[in-house]
Amino acid sequence: MFERGDGSLELTERYVEVFAKVQNAAKRKMSLEKFKEQMEQQAAQGKAAEEFVFRLEQFRLLGEQNESKVKRISGIDVSAGYDIVSFENGDSVNYDRFVEVKFFCGQSHFYWSKNEIDTASLLGGQYHIYLINAEKVDNPNYVPMIICNPAKVILDSGDWLMQPTSYLVLPT
Question: Are 93 and 106 in contact (CB under 8 A)?
Fold first, then answer.
């Protein structure tokens, strides 16, 4: 870095890289209050997305005997691996459609836990992910992306990219 005769500073390439690293590190910093606020906002959006899908499932079964039996279970059992139990059609006697609700803003993406992946693998075609675009959900003509049998569709196809975002680390 050096000073010009007019009092301005010019950065050499080395300093540009250093400032870029510092700036990126500053962007990642978040206060506890801001983090809590963000988590509360995400929880509210998640609940709204689940309620949207709950109503969508009831509408899908409109007039069927099991329409009123659709249940949102995420408030009862967060470890189930899905949020809503429903029915594939009006002839279903037992729950046979298990729905995991994911919402996003911007580009389509979601976080999928190991428990959800294991549950999806176990339930196969009975497991569905409803991918809700939070920016479009208020549009009356909005239809979410529904992924049936995501363990096969996502894990076995080249259409989705899975990136690890955290790891369980244990001593050996």
Answer: no
